[in-house]
Fold this sequence. Notes:
Blueprint: E1 8-9, E2 16-17, E3 22-31, E4 34-44, E5 49-53, H1 60-67, E6 75-80, H2 88-93, E7 96-99, H3 111-121, H4 127-140, H5 156-169, E8 174-178, H6 186-203, E9 206-210, H7 214-220, E10 223-228, E11 231-236, H8 238-242, H9 247-253, H10 262-272
Adenosine-5'-diphosphate (ADP) binds near residues 56, 59 and 60.
Amino acid sequence: METSCSKTRNPFTGAEANAVGVKVDGVSKTYAGTEVLSNISFDVLPGEIFVLMGPSGSGKSVLLRQIAGLELPTVGTVRVDGQDPSLEETRDRVRLALVFQAGALFNSLSVYDNLALYPREHRSGTEASIRERVMHALRILSVEDAVSKFPSELSGGMKKRVSIARALVMEPQLLLYDEPTSELDPVMSATISEIIATLKNEYSVTSIVVTHDRSLALTIANRVGILMDGKLITLGTPKELAATKDPALVDFLYPKIDIQNPRFKKLENQKTS
Ligand SMILES: Nc1ncnc2c1ncn2[C@@H]1O[C@H](COP(=O)(O)OP(=O)(O)O)[C@@H](O)[C@H]1O
Ligand SMILES: [Mg+2]
């Protein structure tokens, strides 16, 4: 057994996985004069699972795009392994994979070709070894039957699993997941949680997971950050969060449905007016 943490192998691909850290420093993002992220700072340690939770529209996906280097913050900086993730040379050196909420597969390519695209472009291995990696990743996500299908023939949940399989084929050191369990049934959600945890525990892949799924967050996270209205309002371990007395946080983490609540009355009034 390998005992060193610095050089371990990715269980799904066999690639060397050296953990990378992420530093988000004073990041704000403004679109057409509207600020959607406001002065956000946090560090993600190498090999950590960092979960970002927050209501819809709080800025989770925007923040992931800044971390992935797909967009530049209006103010502040993001560093992945000490480098700017938007630069080509960083992307050549650090293997970073983003699992988009909607999958973002190429519709004109079969599932097989979607997964084989990255290793082919990077000339990593023979076609036979690429096929082996692709099939292995599809099997892990229980979607090997979809290998010859096109994305338009897949359900939402299958697209999501295929896009996670595609990320595994990229042998990532940093995995960014946007809502990885939305649209999945509880059994598949648990499988995804296990994959995220296995990649972290045994093979030190750093993960940032955006989710609404409280049980996913509280079971797999090393730390959880909560975003509201573009601000990071709290950051702590799952234990610390579970013990919180902050009423806004309790409301968010443990929502109660109370039909006597004035906001439902307001909805009724809107309907009839
Ligand atoms: N490209 C964009 N241009 C303008 N506004 C955007 C853009 N992307 C996101 N927004 C706005 O930023 C806010 C946060 O969005 P988002 O990060 O997608 O929320 P969520 O937390 O649900 O992922 C929303 O008000 C959204 O409308
Ligand atoms: Mg989102």
